[in-house]
Amino acid sequence: MTEPAALLERLTVAVLCVDADLAVHHANPAAQELLGLARGGRHEVARGLLPLSDDFRRLLKRWEMRTYREHHLEVAGRQLTVDCVVAPYAENLLLVELTPLDRHLLISGEDALNARHQAARHLVRALAHEVRNPLAGIRGAAQLLARRHPDDTEGHACTEIIIQEVDRLSRLVERLLGPRRPPERRTINIHEPVERVARLTGSEGPRDLRLVRDYDPSLPTLQADPEQIVQVLLNLVRNAREAMDDRGTLLLRTRIERQYTIQGRRYPLVVRIDVADNGPGVPVGLGEKLFLPLVSGSTRGAGLGLAIAQDLVQRHGGLIEWRSRPGETIFSVLLPVEGVAP
């Protein structure tokens, strides 16, 4: 039979045991991750729960259980919304169960977003296929006219314009169809493609653009196509630079997430790559449509960068999430580390 302690370790719900002063006597990995506790940091104070300390003392004194619905906690500068269940466990000890609601709400939103994204991709690809064949016919007819009337200078100029515009539309159609080859996965250190993008950005960026690297050197290797990851990050960086008008701070950050759910599947380890900028933020009303093809908040693009990036990341079993407010926008590429025991 599995030991109770081992069961606690595998729970996605945060469970911890604290005393009346909120000193932690035990915390499972989910609680350590949620509250930013040091692993094995016995008797470290659970500072995120300090606003509830007086209530906890009363519960211990009265030996009562209580549930706090949609309680707001601040942990390391982050605002969290949790359901909190507190029950006396032993003399001067309380058992605390924390269920973060932010992630559940985000997962529900992701499911709806993915459904819309896939439907839009199918529609756009079908349209692109229908457009591609007539374009080839128009180009062929223009070339034939140019060959039949080699001395018609004015006609040549017209057919050249037709051919150039057809070629431009053909390139757009190819982008709408998106990358058709599957990822060529190999074992990589994620910092290889991230640093490649950082060097490219640093070499071509203007003086007013400040590039900051914040890497976690302890990240595990993972199976991914480095060329496709570079394309994803370049698309995100390009969007960030456009949003800032190439003036401000661009941050590339890598971190590890534990017990993370992506596309309905929970992974023990997920690599997170953040592309953050201090621009004006995502325009109001654009958020729900952000990853749909041909949707853009910029007048300089075709609105395909984010749609293609999301498609490439989903082919790796991952996801791109984002959050934005004026002065801070963060796009996070989440890539699962396969082959890790849950």
Can you walk through the features of this model?
The chain has 342 residues and is of the alpha+beta class. It has three domains: 4-100, PAS domain (Beta-Lactamase); 105-177; 186-336, Histidine kinase-like ATPase, C-terminal domain (Heat Shock Protein 90), CATH 3.30.565. The protein is built from eight helices and twelve strands. The protein has helices at 4-10, 29-35, 53-62, 101-148, 153-177, 191-204, 226-244, 305-315, and strands at residues 14-19, 24-27, 66-75, 78-90, 93-100, 186-188, 209-214, 222-224, 248-262, 265-277, 319-325, 328-336. The strands form three sheets. The chain has a five-stranded antiparallel sheet with strand order 2-1-5-4-3. A hairpin with a 2-residue loop joins strand 4 (78-90) and strand 5.
Question: Which short descriptors sum up this protein?
Answer:
12 strands; five-stranded mixed β-sheet; 342 residues; Heat Shock Protein 90; alpha+beta; Beta-Lactamase
Averaging pLDDT over every residue, what do you get? Answer: 81
User: What sequence of helices (H) and strands (E) makes up the elements?
Assistant: HEEHHEEEHHEHEEHEEHEE
Which secondary-structure class do the elements indicate? alpha+beta
Give the DSSP E fraction (strand runs of 2 or more residues): 25-35%
Q: Mind telling me the CATH superfamily name of the largest domain?
A: Histidine kinase-like ATPase, C-terminal domain
User: Might you state the CATH topology name of the largest domain?
Assistant: Heat Shock Protein 90
Distance between the termini: 18 Å
